[in-house]
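Consider the tokenized backbone below.
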């Protein structure tokens, strides 16, 4: 149990702050809230090389699941799986997500979750809805690979996508990702991104 007040689902808080854009007064009020939430999400939830606030052993997961008043954990209220920890703090994928998931961070984070996406043996592997979420994050640095991975999920009509997503939304997100110099195969690129993506910048 987290000690004191705690929070997860940072991506949803960013999304709610961003939605104020349609109302001018609410938008003026929401802009500093959005900036604050983005900075907190990048500082306390995302653990990038060169700016992690947590010890190295903890930060190697690259994502906190629950941040409490006096503790932080790599789990969620519904389970400890790594795909839950990463996925719940990325969804939903909307225009606001572009400010939350930088190419520099995803270049460091993706190698942590990539083995989960590759493990299809023993009748296991990720459920499609979690696979889709992680691949949408992957699209930030490698949209072509993410497109190939997400398209087959449409054949799973029961739970091919998370309830807040669809094939249309997923393909739109992937197709609109800007070109980037980052690739998960290049740790040098990921390390170079640290200063630019630091929440302190």
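A designed sequence for it:
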């Amino acid at each position: 149990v987290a000690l004191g007040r705690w929070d997860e689902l940072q991506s949803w808080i960013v999304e709610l702050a961003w939605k104020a854009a349609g109302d001018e007064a609410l938008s003026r009020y929401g802009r500093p809230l959005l900036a604050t939430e983005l900075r907190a999400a990048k500082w306390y939830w995302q653990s990038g090389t060169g700016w992690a606030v947590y010890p190295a052993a903890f930060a190697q997961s690259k994502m906190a699941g629950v941040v409490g008043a006096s503790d932080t954990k790599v789990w969620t209220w519904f389970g400890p799986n790594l795909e839950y920890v990463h996925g719940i703090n990325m969804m939903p994928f909307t225009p606001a997500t572009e400010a939350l998931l930088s190419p520099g961070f995803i270049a460091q984070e993706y190698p942590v979750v990539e083995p989960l996406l590759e493990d299809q043996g023993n009748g296991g592997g990720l459920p499609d809805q979690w696979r889709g979420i992680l691949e949408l994050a992957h699209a930030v640095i490698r949209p072509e690979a993410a497109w190939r991975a997400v398209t087959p999920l449409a054949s799973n009509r029961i739970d091919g996508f998370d309830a807040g997503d669809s094939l249309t939304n997923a393909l739109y997100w992937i197709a609109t990702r800007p070109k980037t110099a980052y690739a998960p195969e290049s740790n040098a690129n990921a390390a170079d991104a640290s200063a630019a993506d630091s929440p302190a910048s």
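Strands lie at 6-7, 66-68, 72-73.
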